[in-house]
Amino acid sequence: MIDLFLYIGLPYIAIIVAAIGCYRRMRYSKYSMTARSSQFLEDKQLLWGSAPWHIGILVVLLGHGIAFFLPSVWSAILSVPMATFIIETIGVACALLALAGLGTLIYRRLTSARIQAVTTTADLLVVALLFGQVLLGVLSAMNFRYGSNWSTGTVVPYVWGILTLRPDMAYVTGFPMLFKLHLIGAWLFILLLPFTRLMHILAVPFQYLFRAPQIVIWNTTRRRRHAVAATAKADSRREFIKGAVGVTGATGLLAIGVSSKAINYIKGAGGDLEAESALLEKKLKRLELTAEERKYELERQRNTMILVSTYKELDPVKGKYFIDYAMAPGLAFMGKDCVPIVLSAKCTHLGCTVSSTLDANGKVMCPCHISYFDITTGQPNEGAPAKAPLPQIGWALVDGTGKVVVSRIPGQSPQGEIKPDLLAQCSLYITKPGKATA
Amino acid sequence: MNVKETLKKTEEYIAERLPVDKMNYASMVQKKEVPVHRLSWSYYMGGLALFFFMVQIVTGLMLLFYYQPTVSDAHASVEYITDHIPAGGLVRNIHAWASSLMIGSVLVHLLTAFAMKAFEKPRELTWVTGILLLGITFAFGFTGYLLPWHQIAVNATKIGLQTIEQIGAYLPGAMSDWPRQAKEIIQGEASVGQATLSRFFALHVIVLPLAIFAVLGFHLVSVQLHGMSKGIDEKPRSMEKFFPTFFLKDLRVWGFAFMVLYILGVCLPFESLFSYPLFEPFDPKGSTPDGIKPEWYFFWVYYPLELLPLWVILVGSTLLGFVLMATPWIFKNTNRKTLQLIAIVAGIYLIIMTVWGENIYHLFKG
Question: Considering only CB atoms, which chain B residues are within 8 Å of A372?
Fold first, then answer.
C-alpha cells in the first residue's frame, strides 16, 4: 500500500501540483523565478560553490535526460563497453564535483552572517535535500555499478508509464532501498519545484552566454569608474581568449587532420599484397605494350617494307589500322577495283586518329572536330576543319615467295598486274618513303 | 655627356622602382598599411593565388613520391596513387582542384589589379612580373595536364601542340617548316611520346617551379616595397596596418580557402566532370575518343580557335600579349573608370567563353 503511494500516488501528486504551481508562479509572479542572487553579499566562496555545483549537476542531469528522452540512442552508445565505462566515470566525477560545490554552498549559507540574513527555511530544506539526493545517487552508482545501463531498461519505462497514464510499479518495487530513496527524492523535488528557489531552473538565462560580463556592485561614482575599466579589461581579455582558443583549436585540428593524412600518405599502401600485384601486373602489361611499340619503331627504322595484313583480310568498309613509317596510325581498305587503299589515319587538322569504318558516303570521320575524308582521294569535305587531304601511303602486294606483285607509290598508279586469284595469296606491305621496292 | 645622362636616368628609373633603401623590416612590415574601401576584397586575390600555389607545392611533392614519368608506368602509378595510397585520391584531387582555383584567382587578381590601376608608377615592374607569372601558371597547367597519360591528357596535348605546326601555313618558303620543327623540339620526337612526357615532367616539376620562384620572389618583394596601390580615386575610408591586421585577415581567407579546397577534395573528384573513357590509359593505336578538350582555363582561347581562322587568333593573342606586357605604359593616362569598364568586359568575356564556350561552338558548327 505504501509502495502504491510512493511510486504512483506521489508522482502524480507531484506532477499535478508542480504543473499548476509552476504555471501560476510563471503567470503571476514571473520575477520570483530566481535563485535570488547573493553574489554582492559574498562572492568569494560563492564562486567555489556555485560553479562546481552547477557544472557537475548539469552534466549529471544531461545524462539522466538523454537516457530518459532518447533511450534507444542511449543504449546504443552504452553497447560499447568503453563508452559505458567513460560515461559512468564522467557521471561519478561530476556528481562528486557537484557534492563538493554543494558542500561549499551549505557551509557558506550556515557561516556567513550576511547570507544568513537572506536565507529562508525553504532554502535550507532544498539545499539539504539536494545534498541527500546527490549523495544517494553517487552511492547507488557506486554500489550497484553500471546504473546507466540497468536503469535504461527499468527506470525509463517506469517514468514513461507514469507520464503516459499507464503506471507500472513492477519495474521499481524490486530495487534496493538506496535507489528507491533516490527515486522518491526525485518526485519530491518535482513537488517542491514551484514553492522554492528551484524554480530558477525554468528560467534558463541563455542570453547570459552572449552578453558582455557584468559585475554587480554598489553603485557609487568611484566604483562605477572602476567597473567600467574592469569591464573593458575583461572584455578585451574575453575577446583575446576567444580568439586564441579559436585559433589554437582550429590549428590543432588542422594539424591533426592534415598530418594524419600526410603521414599515412607517405607511409604508403604497404602490405596490401593484392594491390601491389595488381599494379605490377598492370605495369607489366603496359611495359609489354611499350616494348611492342618500340619494336615497331625499330622495325620501321630498319626495314623498307612493313607487313599490314594479308590481302584476304582487307575489307571495303571496315578499315585495318596499322602504324606507318612516321609512327602515326594508318588505314588500309579494300578498294572497289580490288586494289588496296592505303592512307594515313592521322587527321590533317589536329592529328587525331580518324575512325576506321566507312559511312554511307564512303567517308571516314575524325571524331575530334568532325571532318569527313573521302578514302579514295583522301580529301576532306567542304568546310571541314581539316584542309589538307589524308596522305596516301606507298604499298606493295607481295606473294608467298617474297616477290612484289603489285606496288604503288603515292601519287602514281599501281605498278603490276592485278589478278584477284593471284592476289589472294598475297600480303599487303607498306613501303618506306623514298625507297625503291625490292 | 649624353651617355652619362642616359646612365643617370636609367639609374634613377631603377632606383625609383626598386627602392632598396626601403628594404628593411620597419618599412616592409611595420609601417606598411592597407587602404580600406569598397574594392578592398581584391587585395586578397594575390595572396589567395599564393596560397593555392603553396598547396600545389606540397601536394605536388607528395605526388612526386609515387608518380613515375614513363609512358608505360605513368597511368598505372597515377591509378595506384588514387586507389591504393592512403589519402592518395585526396592529395591528387586537391592538386587538381587547387590548380584550377589557383588559375581562377590569378585571373581575378589580374582583372582587379588592372581595374584598380595597380600598375601605375612605380609599380610597372610588379605588373610585368605578374604577367610573366600568369604565363608560367598557364604553362604549369598545360604541362601538368599531360602527366597522367590518359586519353584526354595525351590527345589534348597533341591538339595543343599541333596548333603550333599550323602556323607554318602562313609562313613563306622554307620558313613554313619552322613551326613544325619548333613543335618537334618541344615534344622531343615526331609525335607525342616518351620524350614529350619526360620533357613536360621536367618542365612541370623543375623548370617552371624554379622560374616561378624567381619571378614570384621579385613580385612579392616589390609588392612589399611599394605597398598596396591606392586602388580607387576617392580617399579610402581608413587605413589598416598590414601587420598584424591585414595579415591575420589574409590568413583567415586562406583558412576558408583551405576548407573549401578540402571539402572539394573529399567530396568531388575533379575527374567526375568528364566522361570516363577519357581516363583510360592512352592507346597510341586506338582512335581518338570524343570530348577531347583542354582544361576550362584555356576555353577562352580554345573555342575561338575552333571557330575562327588561325591567323585571327594568332594576331589576337600576339596583340593581347603585347598589350598585357605594355599595360603600364599604354594605359598610363587612362582613368580608373575606363579601366574598370575594360576589366568588366574582359571578365564577362572570360566567363561566357568558359561557361558557354561549348554551346557557342555548337551554335556555329552544329
Answer: none
Q: Which three cell numbers stand for residue A66?
A: 538523454
Q: Which of A101-115, A405-419, B173-187, B198-212 has the lowest mean pLDDT?
A: A405-419
| Residue B194 located in a structural domain | yes
For residue A349, is pLDDT > 90? no
Query: What type of residue is A239?
Result: E
Q: Is residue B123 part of a domain?
A: yes
Count other C-beta atoms under 10 Å from residue B55's C-beta: 23
The cell numbers describing B254, all together, are 586562406
Neighbours of A413 (CB within 10 A): 7
| C-beta atoms surrounding A405 within 10 Å | 19
B266 in reach of chain A (CB within 8 A)? no
Q: Report whether A397 contacts A341 (CB < 8 A).
A: no
Chain A residues at the B interface, defined by Cβ less than 8 Å, are: 250, 254, 261-262, 264-269, 272, 275, 279, 282-283, 286-287, 289-290, 293, 321, 323, 326-329, 345, 349-356, 366-370, 385
Q: Domains in chain A and their CATH numbers?
A: 2-211 (1.20.950.20), 296-352+390-431 (2.102.10)
B22: in domain: no
Q: How far apart are CA A287 and CA A302, in angstroms?
A: 22
Asked if the interface predicted TM-score (ipTM) of this complex is over 0.90, the answer is no
Query: Residue B1's pLDDT is what?
Result: 62
Q: Which residues of A touch B66 (CB under 8 A)?
A: 268
Angle value at C-alpha B302, between B205 and B356, nearest 5 degrees: 115
Total count of domains within chain B: 1
Residue B158 exposed, middle or buried by CB count within 10 Å (0-12, 13-18, 19+) = buried
Residue B21 lies in a domain: no
Give the residue numbers spanning the domain of B70.
Answer: 38-294
Residue A434, phi-psi category: left (phi > 0), alpha (psi -120 to 50), beta (remainder): left
Q: What is the CATH classification number for the domain harbouring B85?
A: 1.20.810.10
